[in-house]
């Protein structure tokens, strides 16, 4: 572990002494040797925090004796406690969190001078013996705290934590996940087709003779969307064309029957005119017969002709009634065709809605199984269909506030950082 000495300061000697003379007369060479043995300095602006370990040495320049006094009783390693302070003999609690080592050293010297009433302020050397640890949390093999070293990156910290979490059942979980994802892919495709079918049936319900429908906006951009749309459009066109042909056939029959009715009505009018003339002839022949001017056979012939004409009128009227009845039946058949079509569309819509709900439930069940599998073995998502994304984040405290920062493998850490490792499976197809 790299150790750091940031500050060591001696009080200025009194005006009557030259510094070089003091060093020669008092043997300060021992203090110089101490300086040479101390580790290299870290950046002077490093702020201490809870769980940093400090190595403290205190010396005092005694002006009257012209010598250096070593306070061995105060020297040693001190841990910055939860309150952000270190506890020193004679002094008590000294604030350390948020301060640099030079600031802590100055505070120790001042506290000793004031507490003990010393004429000269002792000099404290505060060395950062051990950084506070970093923490690895989330989908790591062994989450916990790990020693910090300068240059530590996210990837190195995760490596210290054993890499990604590995469960004994990950192979079985991975197989189950692959099966669940495969089933989900099939179900999502079926769901998309049902949504397109529902849109087509909705348009047909609004207009049984509609030839197109509005594509579902939520599926635009989905794979095979054009194919699904084309299939349902073909079904719609075929059904509409069949209905139209059936209705046109009925209309043709009605026009034919209407023409037949017009012809029969003309025949009835013509035949009634003939009957009227024949009756006049019958009346004339009857008068002549009463006078004995016409034979009875002539009378019978006229009566027979009249009867035949009246019979034809009845036939025409019967045919006329039959044609009108056929028109009524044709109209009813057209109504029945439309009613049957509407009933069929309503039934198919109901079936499509039920199937859609069933597919949604199955998809939700599969996703629940996948989520449960990931909870047991998150690393299984790495080899599952669509793979997974490893996301890193750093939780860092600064100025008394905690913030979560996005990070990658090469992001450098600071002492006290918390590295969050999260395995995020590839997003499932969106359900609208």
Automatic annotation (TrEMBL):
InterPro entries per UniProt: HH_AprE-like, Poly_export, Poly_export_N, Soluble_ligand-bd
Domain called AprE-like long alpha-helical hairpin: residue spans: 185-364
Polysaccharide export protein N-terminal domain residues: 42-128
Keywords annotated in UniProt: Coiled coil, Signal
GO molecular function: polysaccharide transmembrane transporter activity
Source domain of life: Bacteria
Coiled-coil residues: 240-281, 306-347
Domain annotation Soluble ligand binding: ranges: 134-169
Name by which UniProt lists this protein: Sugar ABC transporter substrate-binding protein
